[in-house]
Amino acid sequence: xxxxxxxxxxxxxxxxxxxxxxxxxxxxxxxxxxxxxxxxxxxxxxxxxxxxxxxxxxxxxxxxxxxxxxxxxxxxxxxxxxxxxxxxxxxxxxxxxxxxxxxxxxxxxxxxxxxxxxxxxxxxxxxxxxxxxxxxxxxxxxxxxxxxxxxxxxxxxxxxxxxxxxxxxxxxxxxxxxxxxxxxxxxxxxxxxxxxxxxxxxxxxxxxxxxxxxxxxxxxxxxxxxxxxxxxxxxx
Length: 236
Prior knowledge:
Elements: E1 4-8, H1 12-24, E2 28-32, H2 35-45, E3 49-53, H3 61-69, E4 76-80, H4 85-93, E5 98-101, H5 106-128, E6 134-136, E7 139-142, E8 147-150, E9 153-154, H6 159-170, E10 176-177, H7 178-186, H8 195-208, E11 218-221, E12 225-228
């Protein structure tokens, strides 16, 4: 389960430490030290995962994340010295899959990287064995091509958004708690930061619902979690 990782950080000592430890684990690592180079390398190298610092010269991490998301569904882990909920939410809104607050331990970074790549590899293996997608009213979830269609038009989902809607669709008609979704979709404990689920659900609703303020597919069960319904029947 090795792959190519793009490390983006304007502090070369930090980038060098990450590169050294990731290569020691068997990963191929390429580095960028500013925002413009990061976007260029992401498009050219097509890494399996991106470690992206928030504060960068020329173009900040938020803009880099948004531009990468325009063409790639590669998992992105934000590295940020800021620890406010707003910064974390903004990162997720831009399409990041995860975030780690500086100062961080190398062990934590390696654990996050392995978790994301393991989840991605597992999803590909499972979906390669499926010849059919999932149909829910006007949505079709293509589990081979990792694409969700609405009225036969492909939606622009991130890898994490696809995994979340796929999991909810497989569990259609069942209430899923935020904590359960963190474990099942993100693949490890988020130390109670269930806002990660809420933000991703909100992004999904903006893409799949006719009116995100009155969702028909992904419904909130207050005090419990979320449930995927079929708008035609209102049930499973």
